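Weekly modeling sync, notes
Attendees: S.R. (lead), two postdocs, one rotation student

Agenda item 3: backlog of single-chain predictions. S.R. asked that every request posted to the team notebook include the full sequence so nobody has to chase files. The rotation student volunteered to paste the first one in as an example of the format we agreed on. Action items at the bottom.

Example entry:
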Amino acid sequence: MVENIFISAFLMGLLGSTHCVAMCSGIVGVLSQKASNPVPAFSGKIVGVVLTYNAGRIGSYCCIGVLAGFVGEFGFGFLDSETTLFYSRLLTSIFMASFAVYLMGWPSFLPYLEKKGQSIWRLISPLTRKLIPIRSLPQSFLLGLIWGWLPCGLVYSAVALSLSTTKAAYGAITMLSFGLGTLPALLLMGLASQKLTHLKKSTKIRQIAAAIVFVLAIMHLFSIGILPHSTHAGH
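Predicted structure, as returned to the notebook:
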């Protein structure tokens, strides 16, 4: 059921948050500053900035989810529904397992995809310079919108989940669920970045998260069976 995809997306975001903290530690540090003057953690100013930044980031994820849902709908449209479900979920399981491997620090194809995504990021990242330092909530929201397109293996794995929904609306909800999963760690990182930087260096936390994500990938794979029924029928 599609609800299981939403839950998987949320858990992937929640468990993969250690990767988010490592990738985004620089930008969340910027959020805790006004011009060159530090702002106390948990002040009204910084809370508003961090919340609007993350709202923008998750908004971009939802847009990506809409695109992924469209691609899934038309890319798998020539297949019957059962075969579409099988191959789209298989692709998702591969991405989830690859991300688990990536969290462990082992070889994975996700860093290669991140490097490919850098070509697009180089085009849009200069826009962030006009928004830093943060002086207003609209600025932090726009910064989040741009930062949501940062090449990231965790995001790519969530996009694969959106692709498997084969519906634009479901794709958006999947990425929303994923974004909400990443929210606790990034909110805390933005509000108290100096106190939480040790999390991104914790090997044990990354290993536990990787193990759980890998289990989710296996469960996702076996929820659709080993082969689509149509393949069995052909034999």
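Discussion: group reviewed the output briefly. The chain has one domain: 2-229.
Action items: rotation student to repeat for the remaining queue; S.R. to check formatting next week.
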